[in-house]
Amino acid sequence: MSQATGGFMLKYIVFDFDGTLVNSRPLAIQLFNDFADKYGYRKINDDEVEYLATLSIPDRLKTLGCPMYKLPLLVMDMKKKYKKDVSTLRSVPGIREVLGELKKQGVMIGILSSNYEVNIRSFLALNEIDAFDFVFTARNLFGKDNGILRLMKEKGISRDEILYVGDELRDIEACNKIHIPCAAVTWGFEAEELLVSANPQYIIHEPGEICNIL
């Protein structure tokens, strides 16, 4: 998982937002629990967070008694409330330095996330981060493959020029579906064993390792 494919000429690194750039897992758990009564599922207990991180989203929701069909409206509610709490979030330690180094090396860096663009830009403004060349949003939770393809078409990016960096199983699956390399970080929402099961091209344990891919 540490070898690039032949002809790999990295020009763009595209980051997921929540869990990858931002330490937002505590907020995500809080928001999920806030809507438990409305949607009729049970709240996440502190002692099961690490176990739930080993499960895919469908299995996680099944364990908590939340049917998949409720997910779109639940996610919409969570994103709306997220905006009110974005000021409490901070970037992952070490990620600012990585962004600075990537810019020095002439790499174009962007964000592609299923979160709302207004939430992302609010975080960047509040934390005075201006390293990103663009911010794109996927239309739904499991639509990142389409989002990445839209981004590539708009920017004229070929498959051998781009790397996606994410922290969830769905990030890796989206990249595998459209045949672009993915670097999975282990400090985000989901456990390393779950990420490894999807065969990402890279597993990243510390932010600085992202620069090594270059």
**Poorly predicted parts:** 1-7
Overall helicity? 40-55%
Radius of gyration: 17 Å
What percentage of the residues does DSSP assign to strands (E)? Answer: 5-15%
End-to-end separation: 14 Å
Number of strands: 6
- DSSP summary: helix tally: 11
Structural class: alpha/beta
Q: What is the H-and-E element order?
A: EHHHHHHEHEHEHEHEH
Tertiary shape: globular
If strands are numbered along the chain, what order do they take across the biggest sheet?
3-2-1-4-5-6
| Mean pLDDT score | 93
Main sheet summary: 6 strands, parallel
Characterization of this structure:
The chain is of the alpha/beta class and 214 residues long. It has a 6-stranded parallel beta sheet, with helices on both faces. The radius of gyration is 17 Å and the shape is globular. It has helices at 25-34, 36-39, 49-52, 57-64, 71-85, 95-104, 117-126, 144-155, 169-178, 192-197, 209-212, and strands at 12-15, 108-113, 134-137, 162-166, 182-185, 202-204.
